[in-house]
Amino acid sequence: MNDKIALVEAGGTKFIVGVGDASRHIHARTRIDTTRPEETVPAAIDWLRAQGGDYAAVGIASFGPLDLDRTSPTWGHITRTTKPHWSDADIAGPFARAFACPVAIDTDVNGAALAEWKWGAGQGTTSTLYLTVGTGVGGGAVVGGRLVHGVSHPEMGHIRMPRHPADTGFAGHCPFHGDCLEGLAAGPSIVARWGASLSDLPADHIGHDIIAWYLAQAVQTFQAILEPARIVLGGGVMQTAGLLDRVRAIAWEHGGGYYAGDCRTTLVNPGLGHDAGLLGALALALGAADPR
Length: 292
Hints:
Layout (H helix, E strand, L loop, with lengths): L4 E6 L3 E7 L5 E8 L3 H14 L6 E6 L29 H8 L3 E5 H12 L7 E7 L3 E7 L2 E2 L33 H5 L1 H8 L11 H21 L3 E5 L8 H13 L7 H4 E2 L7 H14 L3
Parallel strand pairs: 1-4, 4-5, 6-9, 9-10
Antiparallel strand pairs: 1-2, 2-3, 6-7, 7-8
């Protein structure tokens, strides 16, 4: 039986497309710029065909929001997104038609959460929450070996936030909710306030404390709801020197020792590095190929 798996990390800036297998070996990969769906998706399919085209499954870890209801006529479509031209785009369907094999699709953060739980920083735990803080903010959670879904996937980046006392004059950057977590802590909101990324601000700039404060409030919220054994904080903003330690300290101070999880040890960096996106797609695809 063919064990090749087609992998698609569908991002708002680029698609990373690869071929892997169940042993987590990635045999080939390429980058395709995210332009319009009618250009980017066929380019990804053409590249996968050029690698042989016979796949046991396709795994797609995509930016969203996504329709994940298998009974819906728009399953596998992006729904309402700020990415121009991509609202209502069918992501899963073209791959299913091209390769006639099982297709698994979920959000990029859900894919990363599953991969980190299976093979990365959350390995060995019963529950792992993954939160990415970059161009946007998103999160996924694995509890008891399964991704958490409701009617659709979680939108952890859009929880409402208390305001930092030194940040009340900023309206927020989210086009849908203004000052939600994404609107206050994502990369574009940082640039909108201070004209530079967090990592480029001076070490004593108040922005470091403000962003850490918002992320610490989010950590407490997710602790209260899920009490995950591991909280993995990834994304470009989290690469700022010292930010993770600031979030740990503030979350611990404000949590008052109430939660079962000790955020000083449960908050960690991702463990899968630059392969996290493709490995997220692989983790999703393995479930499609062997749905048990």
